[in-house]
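Bench notes, bay 3.
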Amino acid sequence: RAFFALPPMTSPKGMPTNALYGFLSMTLKLIREVHPDYLVYCFDRKEPSFRSELYSEYKANREEMPDALKPQIPYLKKLTSTLGVYQLEQAGFEADDMIGTLAEKAARDGVEAVIVSGDKDFAQLVRPGISLYDTMKDVRTDTKGVITKFGVRPDQMIDYLALVGDSSDNVPGVRGIGPKGAQKLLADFETLSGVYENIDKIKGATQKKLIENKEMAFLSQKLVTIVTDMKLEQDWPDLVLKEIDRSALQELLTELGFRSFEKSIFGSSKEPVKLSEGGGPAPKSDTPIVKKQARPKTKVRGDWTDVEWTTQELSSNVVPYSEFWGLLNEQGLAFGYDGKIIRVAAEDHQIGSALKDKHLKWKGFDVKEVLKALGLRSANVEWDNQLAVYVMRPEPVGPIDKVYPLVCNEDWPELPTFNDYLQANLALENFLREKLSELKSLDVYLKLDLPLVSVLADIEQTGVCVDVSELQKQSEELTKILADTRAEIFSMAGGEFNVASPKQLGHILFEKLGLPKGRKTKTGYSTDSDVLESLKSAHPIAEQIIEFRELSKLKNTYLDALPQLVNAKTGRIHTLLNQTMTSTGRLSSTNPNLQNIPIRTERGRRIRKAFVAGEGCALISADYSQIELRILAHVANDSGLIEAFHKDLDIHVATAAEVFGVKLEDVSSEQRRVAKAVNFGIAYGQGAFGLADTLGISRTESSQIIKRYFERYSGVRAYMEETIQLSRERGYVETLFGRRRYIDELKSSNQNVQRSGERAAINAPIQGTASDLVKLAMIELHSSLGAPMLLQVHDELLFECPKADAREVGDEIREVMENVYKLKVPLKVNVGIGANWFDAH
């Protein structure tokens, strides 16, 4: 990259040196700015790697190395050695594999790993403790950055690359599938295997491309997978960044004619700088300095300059209740205070310690990440532009360089400075404060979303303890059960086959066993979950296959994946709680997604046994009971529902009694099941067709049930009709607290899309209000409760406290949650206490 980026240069003896110059420049910058304890440069070898044996065309499109670059390669390794950097290469493997193995080793050993490369393949390795750093673009990429850049999670990158291919390495992929196509497939089916297991659900040309290129897709998957378990003899003491070899480096620089480097490294005295301790002239502070930058085109306020402060000076200079800007972006972590810019390395907890006792008003873009990087708790968050953009228009929010041009209608600098980031944030705040006020959304932003930033930062830093041995035990149990289930399936089928293959399964079910055929796809008959459910009464093999699929997903998605996400230092999982991802205002959980842990099956619920309390503590689960139905009763002002909740009746029994015209004590379990489906279906705008499908009854029967429901609960029908009409007139609906959800689907000419919009219009105020109530409770409990909050999962909150205090704390939590807001019906909270999440829930 340096060779092609720099103009031709030659040494005094006429040897080309431009690649060496760029290489040395980037290495010095890396050492000075990142301050690594360990540094390794990994080199490819001339011999082909194992990938060439898998696919002879691998990297076959690469051009020959330019003649002017060849003589510089040996000097790269000489420079690496003299700078004290360890170098690594191994026959049969690529540099990528060595880097992957070292990064995984670092993550296991609690060492933060930074992969220095612009290669997108490395995105597959990113997770807590492993990030990417592109020195050419000066960009740092973490899990969130991967999702923003590629539209998939790091754990999906291998399958993403297997689908789109890689022209630079001649990895074929699936011809005709581009980034957007791959993103959609992985969003729908999670993995490459999942895509092919559900090939019958994929329509048109995409299905054809996938079928025709299936072999290449799985070959590409192998080619792009970075090896992470190479056998390396080296350990951490070998990889320490050592002092430079003064005499050898001096000799090399003279030979290459790099006089500017001689002066910058050795100075006038020729004494080498200790690069591993910071580089350059000895700094006056322990905080890296940003060079003074030119003022941006749009000057908002303040004359931002750069200062040097030691940690002690920082403590004394920050006065109580100061306005303190915090920015965490591709360039690192920076602060603006009193017209000054201070830059520090991300996760510098020493700086965080100096600030933690100060009464600071934090502002910025994605402030939660700044607080976490500094280890700050219970911070006073005054403004967050990322969050303000989301409240203005509830949809996923991109990085500031994408947001600023759209909101402020000004170009973003090609090479932004910290000054640009600070000024952009000031401009955004001015605009967004005015806009939110105009939309009457400022109140929900200031009272709900903004105070929650500090709450979520604390939750993420606290994390939840995980018993890895429990997960491993359950995984081993499932391995045996899956083997037995597979054997049972083979016995019923009269032979072995790939249970995960829809085509082979279709052959067994419909040709060999002669079961009733469902809908036909281009590759055969569908074997999706709906078809298997319909076949349960026809043959016991269908139930076994359903069981096999469910258990396989449970094992792969949770039992085997969760242990990899446990932080080596804390022994806890620190999920990310996102405020700016959903259209309804609900929080989402990623890396890992703890909100999707199954609860409908016994096996799924058992996963919660692995989430445990710390030593001497208990977990407290507090869960709002039927919160959405209670909100429906309130917004619909329906007397029947309101009365049932005030009497604390079983709402599904009460509904069944009304719909079927029987006494409460005469309601059967089947009638209650139907009523429950109706209650929840109505809250989500479900019609007769959806209810019929849910209950397995005729559409005529479901229409009659819904008709009787609306006759008994006329207020609900009026709410639905009025809400749809109002959303058509205004283009949006609102929660009780004023949070907007725009219903663009209602503008569509497609009737199916319009009906989807109507369902969203009915449900969004209910689901959004439920989310807002949970947020209110979280904010109140965070400020008043002594016990730390560990998780938020939909309508449930999880806490940890000493065992002796658990009962009292549980009562306090219930009191706050049930009285955080007054509806026309009482809020009810179920509280449970246990040594693990399963027992507490």
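Next record in the batch:
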Amino acid sequence: MRENAVRYGQFSPDGKEFVIDNVATPTPWINYIYNDRYFSTISNNGGGISYVQNPLHGRITRYRINDVPPDRPGKYVYIKDEETGDFWSATWQPVGKNQKAYQAVHGFGYTRVSAEINGIFSEITYFVPVAQTQEIWHLVLTNRSNRPRSLSLFGYVEFCLGHALVDLINQADDQHFNRVVFDSRLNALFATKTYWITEGLSTQQQENKAWDQWAFFTVNHPVSAYETRRERFLGAYRNENAPEAVETGRLSSQDSDFGNAVGALKIDLTLPPGGRIPVLFRLGVIPKERFESDKQAAVQAFRTPEDAATALQAVTEKWERFFQHVRVNTPDADTNIFLNYWTPYQAKVAFDVGRVASFYYWGISRGFGFRDMAQDILAITISDVQKARERILLLARQMFRNGRVYHHFYRDGQGELTRHCDDSLWFILAVTEYIQETGDKALLQEEEPFADGGKGTLWDHLKAVVRYAEDNLGPHHLPIFGRGDWNDTLDYIGGEDEGESVWGGMFYVAMLNRLGELAHFVGETAFTREVERLRDRIQQNLNTVCWDGKWFIRAFGADGKKIGSKENRAGRIFLNTQSWAVIASVSEPEKLRQAMDSVRIHLDTDFGPKLCAPAFREIDPNIGLITRCVPGKKENGAVFCHATTWAILAECLLKRGDQAFAYYKKLLPNAVDSDQFRVEPYVYSQYITSNEHPTAGMASHSWQTGTAAWMYRVAIDYMLGVRPTYWGLRVDPVIPSDWQEFSVERVFRGARYRIRVHNPGGVESRVTRIQMDGQPVEGPVLPICSKAVCQVEVWLGQMRLE
């Protein structure tokens, strides 16, 4: 890693943790701790949200949007020295004292924060057990002074309790339904709301029902006092920095039936010199219908340090099993850390969480994105085929009989239909990726309902997608733009009813190529011909009317106006129509190379290639939101990381390994100075501000982006060149010419392939020889391994193995 991030932190020597030595990071640097039902974010300074199943309907705690200071409230433990009256927090914030004393460590499924203040060493570890709907804050206090210490601890959370949007915009009325009570027998606070709505965005629908959960907050030491209302805990005109209740030590110990609900638990401890005391705070939920039967077991679980240690070990082992499916060893240390750990970790988090909750996304205004969830399948087909299969079936249920799909949806069946031209086609990507990985043809015979009634096999759903594609073509036989394609901000090209997406046409061709190959694999000859006829109809015009001399245009607007053309003053060239021309193979190789050369000449920056250039600086209502955005940020000329993964893929397909790796290295999250980059240097962001804005190099919208899944698979499948096909594992690396050797371990259809690639001639590609278990392999596709482990040797050279 470059020196740039040292001011704040660095990876541990084994790459499995990111250690933050300066916790005053430019933005909150967060982590995700969760299981299949319970989700929580946690920053290096203790901020974050918690929810069960759904961040809109199942919100447990508050997390204030655009708050000052940011990252409030969180999961806090205050530590007070009763002798001096001084107090601090187990994380640097919210109290904010002794900043240099703190260190935060993010690992896979846990975050640990330690500090030594006034002779008291504290270490708190946040994590969520593998199966239970609760989170554990395992705090250990050690007295490193030479005298006994009397301490008071205050665990604190601010509750939301139910529908997060209602809580945000209707707080004055919503507070009348909050209930918080303390059960002295169970040493726990319980909180719920007697009013709850389940509409996605409505705040007026009177549904006459209660929230379906009870939240609980407990600790494994006797509670000496508690608080249930924020106003009493913080005090008038105060915030979390210096709560009045902590200052005075006085908590009301009164239940509450209205107001801003909180959970605050006070415990009293005495530590002798050298003494060490573990404290376990736990926050969780219990379904209302099982509250009476389950509450005792829920609050009494994990009451000992041994229980907590065992639970954390199970979390660690779960992630280790996930990482063991692919292992790489290359000459580049950063590549190894990101591809072995942090990129698949981020991709898995995005798959599980679904773009709905982060420091940037609040989980209150949209459901799960159809195309997001389809692409996230890339992250887990290797490691968890069952979850990938379940996701595909879930997506099938969001489809209508005419092939349209919900653009956004909730798991309970609600959804939003928009006029994006690309949504449906991503279903093809999900299905073909899964079957290439598994060979599971039986998936195609699974039946799932359509959203507007009736059932069909997965084949029927795929055929519906083809019908949708065929019915959505404009005068150039290209997809009618609707309200956007992958680029949501090209949303008014051609006004209400006109406009065609050139990228959409390339995307259609790429997906139809995939579908035709799948149809051939399963023997659906007639369907193969149908798919190929539609593909050829679209491809013909892409290669003729869309070529602009040195690159492909982006779209046709009203009256056939070109966007992304040399004729334009702004937005003359767009990245996606160059990279996807290669991915879809819509033209002859000379044009494709010229298109990607134009990317390097006109779009590349120190941070990677821009999405378009020059940025729009005048509003054009006949193009859309992209022209209203700040030049150099978001879709208006930023380095959009998701799109850069496709540029890397295109360069790999052109066999230009040096250029592909150059783009890859520029985009690594630790490649830019952290004061400039600002967000987490261990995960990808949605975009990086380009050189068309004074804040070039500033990133935003980290974690919840399709970048991680695509980067993981592009790097493994095409750069390192080990990718699944219907017939076996293909080996076709495209690497930097100065790599002499690298290795990949890859689990495929129940066997582990240990592949070592030799590059004695310093080439970028061209496999000349393959051996598997000492025997020569004809062609680039490895046969299905019949053993638990197969050893593969690969040589690159000047002559290509066909």
